[in-house]
Write the structure tokens for this entry.
Amino acid sequence: MQKIFQVVCVVLIAAAVMFGGRWYMYVAQAQSPYDEVGIALNGYMPGPLRNWGCHKLQQRFPGQLPPYGCAGADGRSWR
């Protein structure tokens, strides 16, 4: 039973690192704010991380329309 628990923990930690790392690469180093995988991962992040990611994207791409999930009510302004 302990071995199964260890395997489950390792798989969960590995998945968190893999998806969290991919999300961070999108927020911090993407060539475009419209990367579909990055947008989807940003949508799954908890509120404070999602807001931080949107703010970081806004700083990196100030003259572009916000991606889905970072847009205000009108769809054209950053929230």
